[in-house]
Specification:
The chain is an alpha+beta fold. Helices cover about 30% and strands about 25% of the residues. The protein has two domains: about 160 residues, Ribosomal Protein S5, domain 2 (2-Layer Sandwich), CATH 3.30.230.10; about 110 residues, GHMP kinase, C-terminal domain (Alpha-Beta Plaits).
C-alpha cells in the first residue's frame, strides 16, 4: 500500500461549553451532563506525515506544558486507531502538535488534539471510518472525544457520548481568557455542592442565543472558583470589556465573553492582554 507523503494538517479547535448542567451521577462515578458545545476557529494544530519511524514533536507557546510520553492523548489516539485498523495503519508516522491552547483549561485542548489526530491519520492511512466509527473508537480515551470529533455546535448528554447536532446555530464573536492557571477537572467535580440539577431547557429557535443562555448555567463554575479564585477576576475583566455575556467554560479556568462583533471582540482581547499580560487572551469566532 502506498501512502501520501505530503503533510496532512487538522485544526484542533477550542471547545467551549456555552452551558453545562450537571444532572446526576452514575454508579461508576461518572457525572451525567447536559451541555451546549461550540467550537472556535482558534485552536491547536496537528500535522501528520508518513515517516520511517514513529515520532512526536511539540511546538507552540504552550509546548512546555505538554507531556511527550505514551500517556499523551495524541499518542493514545494514534495507537488506538492503529490497533483497530492494523491492515491499514502499517506506515509509521511523524506527528507534530502546535500547542496554542493552555492545558487543563476547560476548553478541551487534549481531547481536541486527539480528535484531530484521529481525523488526520484516517486520511493518511486511508482508513474507511466515518465520524461515528471514530467516535466509538475514541470514547474510551475520554468522554469529550466524540464531541470533538464532531466539531460542530451540539448538545451532549450522558457522560458526553450522546450527541445531538444543533442546526443553524449562529457564529459568535468571542474572547477566550485564561488567568494562566491549570485547574484539575476531578478536583472541580469533587467540590460540587449539588450533582442533581435541572436539565437544559429546550433550545427554541424563537429565542435569541443570549436570552437562552441567560436561563442556563455552568454548574461547575462555583466549584472551580472555590479552587481558583482568579476565575472571578477573569469574568470581571470580560464584563468590564463590554461583553454581552460572560461565563466559565467546562471545568475552568478559561472563560469566554460573547461580543456584538468581531471588531469589538478584538478590541476587548487587546485591552485584556494589555491589562493582564500574564493571562492568555484571544479573540475568535465560533464555527457553525
Amino acid at each position: 500500500m502506498t501512502f501520501n507523503s505530503v503533510p496532512l494538517a487538522e485544526l484542533a479547535p477550542a471547545k467551549i461549553n456555552l452551558a453545562l448542567h450537571v444532572t446526576g451521577r452514575r454508579a461508576d462515578g461518572y457525572h451525567l451532563l447536559e451541555t451546549l458545545v461550540v467550537f472556535a476557529e482558534f485552536g491547536d494544530r496537528i500535522t501528520v506525515t508518513a515517516s520511517g519511524e514513529d515520532s512526536f514533536f511539540v511546538a507552540g507557546p504552550f509546548a512546555g506544558s505538554v507531556p511527550r510520553d505514551a500517556g499523551n492523548l495524541v499518542l493514545r489516539a494514534r495507537d488506538a486507531l492503529r490497533g483497530a485498523y492494523p491492515a491499514h495503519a502499517t506506515q509509521p508516522v511523524s506527528i507534530t502538535l502546535e500547542k496554542h491552547l493552555p492545558v487543563a483549561s476547560g476548553i478541551g485542548g487534549g481531547s481536541s488534539d486527539a480528535a484531530a489526530t484521529l481525523r488526520a491519520l484516517t486520511r493518511l492511512w486511508r482508513i474507511p471510518a466515518d465520524a461515528a466509527a471514530l467516535a466509538r473508537l475514541a470514547l474510551p480515551l475520554g468522554a469529550d472525544l466524540p464531541m470533538c470529533i464532531a466539531g460542530h455546535p451540539l448538545i451532549a448528554r450522558g457522560i458526553g457520548e450522546e450527541l445531538d447536532p444543533v442546526r443553524h446555530f449562529p457564529a459568535l464573536p468571542m474572547v477566550l481568557v485564561n488567568p494562566g492557571v491549570a485547574v484539575e477537572t476531578p478536583k472541580v467535580f469533587r467540590a460540587l455542592a449539588s450533582r442533581d440539577n435541572p436539565a437544559l431547557a429546550p433550545l427554541d429557535s424563537a429565542d435569541t442565543v443570549l436570552d437562552w443562555l441567560g436561563a442556563t448555567r455552568n454548574d461547575l463554575e462555583g466549584a472551580a472558583m472555590s479552587i481558583e479564585p482568579s476565575i472571578a477576576e477573569v469574568l470581571a475583566a470580560l464584563r468590564r470589556s463590554g461583553t454581552a455575556f460572560a461565563r466559565m467554560s467546562g471545568s475552568g479556568a478559561t472563560c469566554f465573553g460573547i461580543f456584538d462583533s468581531a471588531a469589538a471582540a478584538s478590541r476587548a482581547a487587546t485591552a485584556i492582554s494589555s491589562e493582564h499580560p500574564g493571562w492568555f487572551s484571544t479573540a475568535t469566532m465560533t464555527r457553525t
